[in-house]
Design brief:
Blueprint: H1 3-12, H2 17-36, E1 39-55, E2 60-66, E3 80-92, E4 104-108, E5 116-117, E6 125-127, H3 131-140, E7 142-151, E8 154-168, H4 174-194
Antiparallel strand pairs: 1-8, 2-7, 3-6, 3-8, 4-5, 4-7
Helix pairs in contact: 2-4
The structure holds calcium ion (3 copies).
One calcium ion (CA) is lined by residues 92-93, 96, 99, 103, 152-154.
């Protein structure tokens, strides 16, 4: 049944006082929902290409994923992120094949939960989120990461941040909302007083 027809029938059908009040309250509730404003499910992705960058044994490379300069941009305290992952591409330099089994890279994020050791299967490795990483993304739109070679040397290829959340939807014109609200309330009141 089309929504417009449902509302028309809803307002037009006779009923007892209690039912009418219920309808009025429903309409006011619908109007309030418009004022709060809807949010749109969003995915923000930020990829840093390192060129690649050569990392020698014991060396640390630090970088920051910044979602505030992306298109569309993440706006802290307006948009909201509830989850993310980090995909990091590292390849071996192939100059020291005897070290392949012992090379270790440590990936460090804010907090401890998202930290981990790179698995040298030379595939892209995925790291989960940490609480402090999530906090940093929500408050600043940024995530600090550092990669340290604990043993061996390799090439840092890229780092990709995938963040899931809600973007604040554009807020409708206040005048239009007031007109809509006044219209609905007027209509509801007329039905109520007629009954
Ligand atoms: Ca960025
Ligand atoms: Ca950490
Ligand atoms: Ca190596």
């Amino acid at each position: 049944m089309p929504a417009a027809f449902t509302i028309k029938r809803y307002l037009g059908s006779p009923g007892k006082e209690g039912h009418k009040m219920k309808r009025i309250i429903t309409l006011i509730a619908l109007f309030s929902l418009c004022l709060v404003g809807p949010a749109v499910a969003s995915l923000w992705t930020d990829t840093i290409n390192f060129g690649p960058t050569y990392v020698q044994s014991g060396q640390t490379v630090s970088y920051t994923h910044d979602l505030t300069d992306n298109t569309p941009a993440f706006t802290p305290l307006q948009d909201f992120i509830f989850g993310y992952n980090l995909v990091i591409g590292i390849s071996d330099d192939a100059n020291d094949p005897s070290y392949h089994t012992s090379e270790v890279a440590f990936v460090n994020q804010p907090g401890i939960l998202g930290d981990g050791f790179y698995n040298f299967s030379y595939d892209n490795n995925k790291f989960g989120m940490s609480f402090f990483g999530l906090l940093s993304l929500d408050l600043l739109g940024k995530l600090d990461v550092s990669i340290t070679s604990l043993c061996g040397d390799f090439y840092l290829q890229y780092s990709q941040l995938n963040a899931k959340g809600c973007a604040a939807a554009p807020v409708p014109e206040p005048t239009a909302l007031l007109l809509l609200g006044a219209g609905l309330l007027g209509l509801a009141w007329r039905k109520y007083s007629q009954g």
